[in-house]
Amino acid sequence: MASEDEYTAEPFLPGGEEKATLAALRRAAAGCQGCPLYRDATQTVFGAGKATAHVMLVGEQPGDQEDRQGKPFVGPAGKLLDRALAEAGIDPDDTYVTNAVKHFKFTQAEPKKRRIHKAPSLREMTACAPWLAAELALVEPELIVVLGATAGKALLGSSFKVTQVRGTVLEEEIHGRPERLVPTVHPSSVLRADDREAAFQGLVSDLKVAARVLA
């Protein structure tokens, strides 16, 4: 394994014509060993959705259920996100969902105990960035919805603070492409909120900004 400064998924990306499809990227990502997270994760969890999707939703990393099933946003947070999208007027079938980091990072007190989510480091996000860049280049979304602080830092830099810019439309160059982005909270934070209904309506309100951009 390379030193921490050398972590990168770049060598694992497919080359030539193979690079031109999401299916090829997904197959290649299954063997990614660009940082140590692959060692403990069950599998790579790549993005899912249509290559023609108008909206790309970018979260932090897979959770426990995503790691087991190999698909993004299939746990409780994903179900809440689908409900929020529908309420905001965004068709979930017109979205491509992915994460800034493709392997589940967790802590576990004992082998059969519950696996507790652990935030990925900046180096791990940077190592995984080539996958996200490749997804963006293929999907070419009209809008990126940034779900939470970690996704925001992965796309917009370490100074990103979701509380300062949530529900606003940003225009930035991301991986060499001009992009429009609407940041909001990660749906898992809604599930942890003291007032879950208020937090949910806040998420919906942000997503309605995204829906107006797409209209």
Distance between the termini: 47 Å
Question: What percent of the residues sit in helical stretches (DSSP H or I)?
Answer: 25-40%
Q: In total, how many beta strands?
A: 8
Broad shape: globular
Class computed from helices, strands and strand pairing: alpha/beta
Strand content: 15-25%
The overall average pLDDT, rounded, is 93
Strand neighbour order, sheet with most strands: 1-3-2-6-8-7
Spell out the key features of this protein.
215 residues, 8 helices, globular, 8 strands, alpha/beta
Task: Characterise this structure.
Helix content is 38%, strand content 16%. The protein is α/β, with parallel strands linked by helices and 215 residues long. Strands 1-3-2-6-8-7 form a six-stranded mixed beta sheet. A two-stranded antiparallel ribbon has the order 4-5. The model has no long low-confidence stretch (mean pLDDT 93). Strand 4 and strand 5 (116-117) form a beta hairpin. The longest helix has 19 residues, at 196-214. It has helices at residues 22-29, 64-69, 76-88, 122-139, 149-156, 162-165, 187-192, 196-214, and strands spanning 48-49, 55-59, 95-99, 106-107, 116-117, 143-147, 170-174, 177-184. It contains eight helices and eight strands, in the order αββααβββαβααββαα. The chain is globular and about 40 Å long.
